C-alpha cells in the first residue's frame, strides 16, 4: 500500500514538472543533433543514409523514455511486493508461476516491440519522399513547372503509391501488435481465473476465514491490474530504447577533423595551391567523379576551369574550398616555402557558389553570411553591395526578402548580386567564382568579370565558366572532360595546340558571328 501511495505521489509530481521537462528535453535533443550535424563532413551529410539516421534519431523523446523507465520500475517493484505477500501466505508456487509467466510475456513483448519499431523506422526515407512531393506541389519555385506541364496528378498518384506502401507496413504492424496483445489478454484472464480458483479451493479446504480470502483476492486483483500496466509500459520502453540506440548511433558518427584553436589564424596572403594525384568519389556513386587531378596554382594566379556539364569542375572547387576531402591524393597550401594547414585557409576562401543560398531573411543577413562579424557594420555591408551592384534595386539593409514571410521577392540576377556582395565581404587567400554570372545581364556579367580580375591582383583566384571569352584574359585555363584535366595552358597556348579547347572556343565565337 505504501508503494502504491508513493506511486500516486510520483504521478502527481510528474504531472506538475512534465511541461518544463518536455520543453527542455525537446530543445536538448534538437540541440545535440544539430551540434553533431555541424561537426560532420559535407560528404557524410549529403549521403542519404546519414539523413535516414538523423531522422530516426529525431524520433526519440527523452521525456517519454524517463517516464517509461520510472513507470516500469515502479510497476515492477509493486508486482514483486504483491508476489512476496502472496508467497508469505503460503502460495509461493502460484506466485512463482505468475512471475515466470510475466517474465516470459516481457520477453515476447520486447521481441514484438522491436519488430514494430523497425517497421516504423524503415518508413523514414519514404516519408521523406512523400514530404518532398508535397513540397513540389506547393512550393513557389516548383509550382509554375508542375502546373505548366500538368504534373500534379502524376505526382499525387506517386505520392498515393508511397502512402499505400507505408500503409501496408503500418497495417502489418497493427496486426502484429494486436494479435500479441489479444493473446496476452486471454492469458491474463485464464491466469486470473486460475488464481481465484486456487485461492478459493485451497482456503476453503483449509477452513480459513472469509476475511483472509477477501484479503488475498484483493492482492490477486492488484496483481492483475499491475501486470497489464507493466506490460504496456515495457513495450513503450523497448520502442524508446530502440530510438535511443538510433540517436546514439547518430551521435557516434565519425566527425570531421576540427580546427585546432591554437593555430586557427585566418590567413589572407595569396598562396600556392598544389594538388597531387587527386581522385574523388561521391558516396552514392559507383565511379570516381574526379580522376588523377594534378595542378599547381601560383600565388596571385588567375585561372579558369572550363569544360562540359558534369565534368567535375564544381566538385574540384568544393574540394579546394575544404568542403569535401579527397578520396585519394591531396591538396596542399603553401605560404612561400611554408606549408599552411588547409583548415587554416579554407575558412577565408571567398566563394560565389553556382547554387548559392537564397536566405529568406533581411538583406543584411544575406550579405553578412560572407563574414558574420560584419553583421552590424553598415558601411562595410553597403560597400560590398555597391561593388556587386546590389544597391541599384532600391533595397535597404533591413528589407526582408522572402514573400512567404511577407518580404519582397528578387529576380534571379538580383539574388546573384547579393551572393556576390556576400563574397566581397570576406577577405581570404583564394577567390572562387563558380559560374557567377549565369543569371546576370551582359553588362553586369562584364562588371563581375572585371572585379574577378581585379581581385586576382592580390589573391589567387579561380573562375568556373562556360563563357570562353572570359578565359582569354586569365593566366591559365584547365579544360575538364569526364573528371579529368585534358588540356591546360594560356588561351594562346591552347589555341595553338589546336585541340578540344580551340574547337569549343571557335564554336562559341561562331555563335556571335
Ligand atoms: N552531391 C553529389 N552527390 C553525388 N554525385 C554528385 C554530387 N554532386 C555532383 N555529382 C556528380 O558529379 C559529377 C560532376 O558534377 P559537377 O557539378 O562537379 O560538374 P560540373 O563540371 O561543375 O558541371 P556543370 O558545368 O554542369 O556545373 C556529375 O556527374 C554529378 O552527377
From TrEMBL:
Record bears the keyword Iron: no
UniProt domain ABC transporter: residue ranges: 275-507
UniProt name for this protein: ABC transporter ATP-binding protein
Compartment(s) where it occurs, according to its Swiss-Prot or TrEMBL record: Cell membrane
Gene3D superfamilies on file: ABC transporter type 1, transmembrane domain (1.20.1560.10), P-loop containing nucleotide triphosphate hydrolases (3.40.50.300)
Record field: transmembrane: 180-204, 210-231
PANTHER family referenced in this protein's UniProt entry, alphabetically: ATP-BINDING CASSETTE SUB-FAMILY B, HAEMOLYSIN SECRETION ATP-BINDING PROTEIN
Domain ABC transmembrane type-1: 76-239
Organism: Paenibacillus odorifer
InterPro entries, per the entry: AAA+_ATPase (IPR003593), ABC1_TM_dom (IPR011527), ABC1_TM_sf (IPR036640), ABC_transporter-like_ATP-bd (IPR003439), ABC_transporter-like_CS (IPR017871), P-loop_NTPase (IPR027417), Type_1_exporter (IPR039421)
Topology versus the membrane: Multi-pass membrane protein
This protein's UniProt keywords: ATP-binding, Membrane, Nucleotide-binding, Transmembrane, Transmembrane helix
KW Nucleotide-binding (keyword) present: yes
